[in-house]
Specification:
The chain is of the alpha/beta class. 47% of the residues lie in helices and 15% in strands.
Amino acid sequence: MKLQDKVALITGAGAGIGEATAKLFVSEGAKVIVADRNIEQALAVAEALGSQAFAVQADVSDAAQVKTMVEKAVAHFGGIDILVNNAGFGTLGTVVTVDEDTWDQVIDVNLKGVFLCSKYVIPEIIRRGGGAVVNLASTISVVGIKDRAAYVAAKGGVAALTRAMALDHALEGVRVNSVAPGVIASSYYDKMFETVEDPVAFKKGLAARSPLNKMGEPIDIANVILFLASQDSNFATGAMFTVDGGYTAW
């Protein structure tokens, strides 16, 4: 049990990578706060996991909601040892075509959300004697991608913020790392498959982005998050772990 008696707060845990991470953490002995803007999804995940999980609704871009989320988590489980900043979303657009409101939303959820959750959770981690923060960056933090300007900017910011946080809190016993997923099967892509003219060809195109010629699964990322949240990565901080099927090795 790599996380026995640890308490982890996972944002965006109602589906995808967040849900897979919540399930894996519970299987490794952790108590998990399943946080999501969609409370129905969060409740469904928490119910499936039993008494080791507790669902909380929160929009990570709203400071008041984040503060309340953390207060509820601490009241329910007594503290927090691990934070997984997973909540996020992307949208199409260049700096010319994306509108300002959409730009703000993408930055607020993906980057400001990491700031706010870390702001309120790190003091709780320090009170417990130290722990870990894992931020979800992206391969586009490294290589970029066309027509995703806001998302690229946000995830690049997450990668940089991870390094800053690692330096700021190293002597307080808080390790901070990030994971950079490649193309991962998710409801995000499922919705795309429903709208494109040739979903089979579209899926093959996504798979072909990596030398392994396949899309990753949420559990592939969850396994790396577990490594970074546990003592298996005791000497790792300020690093970004890329899990993209070799996409950035082309």
